[in-house]
Design a protein that fits this description.
By secondary structure, the chain is mostly beta strands. Helices cover 11% and strands 51% of the residues. A hairpin with a 5-residue loop joins strand 2 and strand 3. The longest helix is centred in the first third of the chain and has 8 residues.
């Protein structure tokens, strides 16, 4: 299992555009500076009234298939 760590800050109004289907993926920049594309659905469980904010860990397999996203801190 592989992992990358990233921080994200998306306001509720910005995330609404993703949620409504205007965009189905988000490109993040990891702590190591790597660009990674993830499906919007991977972040849905972390959305609150202010949007999505915090530090996260993305876990993926050797075929680069997303396994899960975990929140590390707010």
């Amino acid at each position: 299992m592989n992992e990358v760590r990233f921080r994200i800050a998306i306001s509720a109004s910005q995330f609404l555009q993703y949620y409504q289907g205007a965009v189905d993926t988000i490109v993040i920049i990891t702590a190591e500076g790597k660009s990674v594309q993830i499906p919007v659905g991977a972040l849905l469980k972390f959305v609150d009234q202010s949007g999505v904010r915090g530090s996260f860990r993305l876990l993926y397999d050797n075929n680069n298939k997303l396994l899960r996203v975990e929140r590390l801190s707010n």
